[in-house]
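Reply to dn_fold:

You asked what the input looked like. This is it:
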Amino acid sequence: MLFEKTEPVYLISHEFTEPAFNLACEEYFFHHRQENYILLWRNSPAIIIGRNQNAYAELDMDYVAENKMPVIRRLTGGGAVYHDLGNLNFTFITNGADGLADFKVFLKPITEYLCSIGLDAEFSGRNDILLKGMKISGNAQANYKGRVMLHGTLLFSVSLSVLAKALKPNPLKLSAKGISSVKSRVTNISEHLTRSMNVEELKEELAVFLTGTESCVPYALTAEDEAEIKKLVEEKYGTWGWNIGSAPSYSMESTALLTGGMVTVNFDVYEGKIISIKIFGDFFGSRDISGLEQKITGTPHERQALLAALEGFELQKYIANITAAEFSELFFS
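and this is what came back:
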C-alpha cells in the first residue's frame, strides 16, 4: 500500500473535463486539504506544460491557437503533454513526504492493474510506464509542506496525430531557459488489448482496482470544493499570466520580409513581458526606431496585448508601409 493504513484514502473519480478546472482541482486537494487522495480524471483537448517550461519553445503555438486548444501550466516539472478524452489521468496525493517520492513505488498499483488486464506493462527509466518498449504513461511530481503529489497519464485512445502536431515547436530562433520535453515513441493502450474496452471502462475498472489495493473511500466533490476550485481557475489556471507568462525568461529573434522591407526583432522576455527589444532592417521610416522599441517594452508577449499597445500608435512613421498585424506577427513566427 502507498498510504499509511491509519489514515483514510479518498478516491475522487469525477466527470469534469475542463482542463483548467482539473489542474486547479489538483492544487486544491494538494495545497488546501490534509487528507490522502487519489484522483482519476480526463481532459478535453489541451496541452499541459511543465512548471518550468516555455510554451513557445515546446509547442506549435499557431496550430494550438487554430485548434482552440488551451495551454495550461501544471505545478509539477517535466515535459509538455497532450491530453484529450482518450487519455486517463491519475493523481496520488499523500502526507509524510521528505523530498522526491519513488516513482516506481507510486506507479506499482498502476502497472499491476495494467498487467491484470493482460498487458505486459513495466516501469522504465526515471518516470515512465512502457508497453512493448513504447511509452503509455509519463509522470511527474511536486512537494508542498510535507505533502507529495505524483500524477501521470494513461494513453488509451489519444489522437497521436494531433499530439505529434501540437508538441512540435515552430522553428523559431529562440533561446529558452527551462526544461525541454524529451520526445519518446508512444502507443495507445487500446491497440494492445485482447478484449473490448473503452476509456470510461478503463477509468471505472482502475477505480475498483485502486479501491481494493489502497482501501479507498469514495469521495464526491462538494459545492464548497467546486467553488474553491473555480476560484483557483479564475485567479490562476484560467489566466495567461500563469499558463504562458510565468515561463522562465527567454530571448527570441525573428526576421521577415514585409511590405515595408526586411524587419528583424530581437527581444528578451521576463515574467511574460518584453523587457528589452531591438529592431533592425532595411525599412524606411521618418522617426527614430527607438520610439517604437520604447512603445513595445513592458508589453506582455501575447498577440492581443501587442495589438492593443499599437492601437492608435503611428507605426508607419517608424516602419513605412507596415500594418500592426504584420508587425505583431513577427513576435510569434
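The CA atoms of residues 59 and 169 lie 4 Å apart.
Hope that clears it up.
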